[in-house]
């Protein structure tokens, strides 16, 4: 038998290996294997098995690294599709589907062959000394970190010694960075009824204990002292100690002298345990007697104060059994989620759900594979329209049909809120996957999914490759978001999660739901073309009558809402948007980054103890050049792309066609000398707020302040708990957050995104402006948006101010059609890489 193997290396070819007799019958599709590749060792995955090989000379498989397949046949098919679409080697696409740390790296193993060898070279001498001191065999990594060789170029010395036959150098693979975690367990080995009797015989030897035990074992209440001493082997001294404690009475007036037990026999049994020093072992045995399953020893230690020595002594006595069991590292294990029930749908929600449910009902387990068609749905719903409830209904349906679901969000910052909603609906069935988890957590989630122990995965784009047995639904919330596209500096393949999810659901006859208040223009175009089923939710839902009444009582204010036809559902209008022309602010003498309208609105919001969000999609200095008087933006004369200002040479460059220009000293449109590059970032905004509103509590949330998934959740929870009045943030505050106390959203500059050198700049700006505007007025207090701009006449700004997606789409699609931009033409970016910058530049220029 022969195995076709894709290796974890940037080579497009796959390779064939024969299966040696010792591995015969064990090699299966999808296994992780070790192979010889060139002069080195390499990891590979079996992608096909056959009785013949297309090449005559083949090497053997060296080892099977995991008895179970690490990828399924469906994942291999999907990886082939990604490889073809993204022009990326198949091995790199397959490694997308493995958790980090499951494989090690490549290394060398150095073995000392000549124990008495000497050398005149100082580094060679150090290498020989380290090997002799450390047992004769070390890996290259172990040599690297050796104190004796720190800072030395030891590899030439190793090669020289190997050439002389002093050392043997073998290329090896290092062990995986992550392994299954096990915990030690303990279980009772005797019947629970025998615990007390067993405990009395444990511990150190004690004559008093022996004497007390002998006394309790005798049927009569009074016995002679001689008989007791004979039965227990005790002494008169020990007997006097028991009498002094008041446990027995010694009557020496009688002939013969007698002993009487003064305490109940049950109490005497407890004293016997104490005298033997067996109180802790007795606690252990009693705790174990109450449990039907083996216990984690760490939990037992906490309950009883026992130590490992106590358990080992009990094991030697045959009273307990020590063992091990697998333990899952789960980031949600310690969290509690209160189960929720699904609300009544509005008429709009019911109509959208009916379309999806109708398709899911048609799956039918009696149909032959391949006869069912994938359901591709684009759910276009305004912010707060109830898209999440549609997602949850689809997930519930998939689980009821014995399938699984994947719920994708674009940012790690959104996983906490999404997990709360999903886990509350499906308690005990949810796991989370994103790059912020530890390698152990990701590895164990991957293993649990492979075992079929997880029903729903929530996570960012990499969660799409979790090995669930039968995915029936994939949800991409905020489907327009650019974070779903993998790009540098992450290694290839550079896939888009939306495209991969579509291919995956076509292969698995599942349902894909793309949801957004501002869908990607290309997705809408495809829906109009018939590739997706378009579903609309145009009404913002504020809640149901009972919940609204409860909230009104809490805030002491009556809300403005509109009853809907659905039972008890209430709607609220999208927040009004006020566009402020910052050119007019300058003419009026206001040189602050905050307009007068925004300053007044912030003052009012703080006075009413409500919350505000200030949004600016930039952390550092912006790079486009514009006129502060008329709003002119320096653009490329060839392709209409905004020119980018480069600090290093102060030139304006077009990042699309390469055109260069110098920054004009005056505006070519109005002649103003106030032509500048835009330079405000979130840090600048934070400082300005502190200056204007020194008593306000401010929270800045961007990639500089929140660097871990936990910190994102902490920032969000602090704002939800009203520990801050004003939240300053970048695009992560614009996405999917439900913050009922936010009544004001201020967009500090709508121009930042408009003038990026990207043909999608207007679309991205419209989406972000609409999304961030949607954070206001989601609760009973209502809300408003103030949008500051130097280009109030720009069609993206005007459409966002009216929450008018159709108006924007019609104008943008016309622009794309005219210039031949996607979706009417596909763009490809070609990147040249080389260790030599000169060679890379020469090749790129020649190709251009």
Would you give an account of this structure?
- It is a single chain.
- The protein has 848 residues and is of the alpha/beta class.
- A hairpin with a 6-residue loop joins β12 and β13.
- The protein is globular.
Taken as a percent bin, the fraction of beta residues is 15-25%
User: So what's the overall shape?
Assistant: globular
Cα end-to-end separation: 47 Å
DSSP helical segment count: 29
Helix content range: 25-40%
- Derived from helix and strand composition plus strand pairing, the structural class reads alpha/beta
What does the main sheet amount to? 7 strands, parallel
Can you count the beta strands?
A: 36
State the strand order across the main sheet: 18-19-17-20-21-16-22
Give the radius of gyration. Answer: 36 Å
Q: Report the average pLDDT across residues.
A: 86
Low-confidence stretches: 364-372
Question: What descriptors fit this protein?
Answer:
848 residues; alpha/beta; 6-stranded mixed β-sheet; globular
Q: Topology, please?
A:
Layout: E1 2-7, E2 15-18, E3 32-37, E4 40-50, E5 59-60, E6 63-64, H1 73-86, H2 90-95, E7 106-112, H3 122-133, E8 137-139, H4 140-144, H5 155-163, E9 167-173, E10 181-188, H6 195-200, H7 207-217, E11 222-224, H8 225-232, H9 236-244, E12 248-251, E13 258-261, H10 265-275, H11 279-289, E14 295-296, H12 297-304, H13 308-316, E15 320-327, H14 347-361, E16 375-381, H15 387-400, E17 404-408, H16 415-425, E18 430-433, H17 439-450, E19 456-459, E20 471-477, H18 497-508, E21 511-516, H19 521-529, E22 533-537, E23 541-544, H20 545-555, E24 562-563, E25 569-571, E26 577-581, H21 582-587, H22 596-607, E27 611-615, E28 625-627, E29 644-645, E30 651-653, E31 660-662, E32 675-677, H23 682-692, E33 698-701, H24 709-720, E34 726-729, E35 742-747, H25 751-754, H26 761-773, E36 784-789, H27 795-801, H28 805-819, H29 837-847
């Amino acid at each position: 038998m022969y195995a076709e193997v894709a290796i974890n290396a940037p080579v497009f070819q796959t390779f064939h290996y024969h299966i040696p007799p010792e591995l015969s019958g064990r090699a299966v599709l999808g296994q992780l294997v070790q192979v010889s590749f060139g002069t080195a060792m390499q990891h590979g995955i079996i992608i096909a098995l056959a009785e013949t090989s297309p090449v005559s000379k083949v090497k053997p498989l060296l080892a099977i690294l995991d008895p179970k397949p690490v990828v399924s046949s469906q994942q291999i098919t999907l990886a082939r599709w990604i490889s073809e679409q993204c022009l990326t080697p198949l091995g790199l696409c397959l490694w997308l589907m493995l958790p980090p740390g499951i494989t090690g790296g490549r290394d060398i193993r150095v073995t000392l062959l000549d124990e008495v060898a000497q050398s005149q070279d100082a580094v060679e001498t150090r290498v020989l000394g380290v090997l002799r001191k450390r047992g004769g065999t070390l890996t290259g990594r172990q040599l690297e970190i050796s104190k004796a060789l720190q800072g030395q170029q030891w590899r030439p010395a190793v090669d020289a010694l190997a050439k002389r036959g002093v050392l043997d150098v073998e290329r090896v693979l290092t062990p995986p960075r992550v392994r299954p975690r096990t915990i030690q367990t303990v279980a009772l080995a005797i019947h629970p009824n025998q615990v007390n009797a067993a405990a009395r015989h444990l511990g150190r030897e004690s004559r008093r204990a022996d004497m007390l035990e002998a006394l309790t074992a005798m049927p009569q209440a009074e016995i002679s002292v001689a008989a007791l001493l004979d039965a227990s082997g005790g002494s008169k001294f020990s007997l006097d100690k028991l009498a002094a404690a008041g446990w027995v009475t010694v009557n020496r007036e009688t002939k013969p002298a007698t002993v009487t037990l003064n305490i109940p026999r049950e109490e005497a049994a407890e004293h016997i345990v104490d005298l033997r020093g067996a109180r802790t072992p007795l606690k252990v045995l009693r705790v174990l007697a109450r449990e039907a399953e083996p216990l984690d020893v760490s939990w037992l230690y906490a309950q009883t104060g026992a130590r490992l020595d106590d358990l080992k002594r009990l094991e030697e006595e045959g009273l307990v059994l020590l063992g091990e069991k697998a333990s899952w590292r789960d980031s949600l294990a310690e969290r509690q989620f209160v189960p929720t029930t699904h609300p009544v749908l509005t008429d709009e929600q019911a109509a959208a759900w009916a379309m999806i449910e109708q398709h899911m009902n048609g799956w039918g387990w009696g149909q032959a594979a391949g006869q069912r068609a994938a359901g591709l749905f684009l759910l276009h719903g305004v912010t707060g329209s109830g898209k999440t409830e549609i997602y949850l209904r689809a997930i519930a349906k998939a689980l009821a049909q014995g399938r699984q679901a994947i719920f994708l969000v674009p940012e790690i910052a959104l996983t906490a809120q999404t997990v709360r909603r999903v886990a509350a609906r499906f308690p005990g069935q949810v796991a989370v996957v994103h790059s912020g988890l530890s390698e152990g957590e990701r590895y164990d989630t991957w293993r649990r999914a492979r075992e079929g122990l997880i029903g729903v995965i929530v996570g960012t784009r990499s969660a799409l490759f979790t090995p669930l047995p039968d995915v029936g639904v994939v949800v991409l919330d905020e489907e327009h978001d650019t974070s779903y596209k993998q790009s540098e500096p992450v290694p290839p393949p550079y896939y888009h999660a939306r495209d991969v999810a579509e291919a995956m659901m076509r292969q698995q006859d599942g349902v894909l739901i793309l949801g957004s208040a501002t869908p990607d223009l290309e997705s809408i175009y495809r829906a109009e073309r018939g590739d997706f089923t378009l579903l609309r939710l145009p009404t913002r839902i504020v809640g149901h009558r009972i919940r609204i009444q409860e909230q009104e009582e809490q805030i002491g204010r009556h809300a403005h809402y509109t009853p809907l036809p659905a039972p008890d559902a209430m709607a609220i209008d999208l927040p009004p948007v006020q566009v402020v022309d910052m050119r007019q602010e300058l003419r009026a003498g206001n040189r602050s980054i905050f307009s007068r309208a925004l300053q007044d609105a912030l003052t009012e919001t703080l006075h009413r103890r409500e919350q505000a969000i200030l949004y600016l999609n930039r952390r550092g200095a912006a790079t486009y050049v514009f006129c502060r008087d008329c709003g002119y933006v320096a653009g490329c004369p060839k392709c209409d792309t905004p020119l980018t200002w480069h600090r290093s040479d102060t030139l304006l460059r077009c990042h699309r066609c390469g055109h260069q220009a110098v920054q004009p000293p005056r505006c070519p449109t109005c002649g103003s000398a106030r032509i500048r590059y835009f330079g405000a970032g979130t840090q600048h905004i934070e400082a300005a707020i502190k200056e204007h509103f020194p008593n306000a509590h401010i929270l800045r949330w961007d990639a500089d302040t929140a660097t871990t998934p936990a910190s994102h959740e902490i920032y969000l929870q602090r704002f939800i708990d009203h520990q801050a009045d004003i939240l300053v943030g970048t695009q992560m505050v614009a996405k999917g957050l439900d913050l009922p106390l936010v009544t004001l959203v201020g967009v500090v500059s709508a121009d930042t995104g408009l003038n990026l050198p990207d043909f999608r700049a207007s679309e991205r700006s419209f989406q972000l402006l609409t999304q961030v505007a949607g954070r206001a007025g989601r609760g009973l207090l209502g809300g408003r948006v103030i949008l500051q701009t130097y280009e109030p006449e720009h069609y993206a700004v005007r459409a966002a101010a009216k929450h008018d997606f159709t108006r924007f789409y019609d104008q943008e699609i016309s622009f794309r059609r005219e210039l031949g931009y996607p979706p009417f033409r596909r763009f490809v970016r070609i990147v040249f890489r080389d260790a030599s910058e000169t060679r890379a530049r020469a090749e790129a220029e020649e190709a251009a």
